[in-house]
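User: Alkene reductase, Nocardia mangyaensis:
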Amino acid sequence: MTKTLFEAYDLAGLRLPNRIAMAPMGRVRSGVEGLATPSMAAYYAQRATAGLIISEGVQPSLLGQSNPRTPGLHTDAQVDSWKQVTGAVHANGGRIFAQLMHGGRIGHPDTTGMQPVGPSAVAARDTMVFTPTGPQPAPIPRALTTAEVGDEALSYARAARRAIDAGFDGVELHGANGYLIGQFLSSNANLRTDGYGGSIAGRIRFAAEAVAATVDAIGAGRVGIRLSPGAGIWDAIDEDVPELYGALLAELATHDLAYVHLEATADEETLVGLRRTWPGRLIVNPSIPGGPVPADRKAAEHWLDLGADVISFGRAFLANPDLVERLRADLPLDEADEATYYTGGDTGYLTYGAYRYPAAG
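Assistant: Predicted structure for Alkene reductase:
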């Protein structure tokens, strides 16, 4: 039977009214203490017709914070602040997962007051990171001890419990785009010689332990993970992509996760091969991060045919809060103003509306 974007889908017991997900996108609109705001509640509620919303990256600890003015899930006040967001989404008929994002070496002492950490004391080359005073060169991180690696894996589980307390339907571990999980997977960011580095089995160990701990904390059906095979973002270079991610997916298949979320950062043949390795539910984001063309309905339907179960859209959701209806009716899509992506305030955040049909002549 041919899958369609607009049919209902059972995601590990969570009924989605369609196969369209809103991909996680950082918007740096939180309070200075990492609190969610009323504007954030309105922003996500506007997009609640998505089958699933995956929130912007949420730091699981202060040490894990990458950018200024990003939200967290490591204090009671942060948990309470997120309840207005999840409540607004649910009141508008939506479902929302929190993306748990530990920045690892992609951070700065000016942001957190602490030296960033990573698998090894290797800075991201030729990379500027965001700080409260503007972009600065990526610092050399402190290499985690073997004991500390295990505790950082547990930080995802601790934040996941808080996410459920805050009303989220589940969590997605951010294993993509060169943040901490991706740094452990990387062959140039991870130079460890203990059990968390070197071989493929060593490099996937941190991701596997973080997922296993989170599953133990809140249940497999509430846990997903996002991956970007071969992306090389933030100078986290993957080698042996089919073997590396094939081994990781085989390990993750021991859990009945809610989903794996793949970005189309490798060639189609590789991604289709990974789909064969992964027996569970699959979300695909067809748009290359930072690429010139956002995903569209044609790309989405192509990936459904190739084995995806749900398609996530990122940039298309920014200026089109009613994206599901626009795709359904083949209506034109508005373009978001890139100058307002990370500027704070409601302009370019809450100022996009539903499609306006032309007045009758």
